[in-house]
Structure prediction request, 118 residues.
Amino acid sequence: MEHFSVSLPLTGEYLTTVRLTTGGLCALVGFDVDLAEDYKVCVTESLLILKRNGYLRADICFTVGETLACTVCGVDKNGTKEGELEDEISRALLSALLGKVDFVQGKDGDVEKIEFEG
Prediction:
């Protein structure tokens, strides 16, 4: 298994870069177009959940093997929390697209890490 990690600020222009990177990794493991698109949506939604929970940065670690696993962790929690309804929609979308998704909460009860595999 190989690991690929990236650390980024949670701003709009970097989300596009992450989607392109995720698409390339999906191609490496042989995902079809539909599964690759679903996976890119899941990575983007994970980043948006962290941003809405007050994180300014995120670390993403992909594990490339027979499948593609992803862990998205919030870093630098100094922003304001917003959008609980949007979080619920994002959580439902992640679960619908991938099935098993782990939402890890920090001591304050907010999501600090999201883990999934495709």
Observations:
- The radius of gyration is 13 Å.
- The chain has a mean pLDDT of 92.
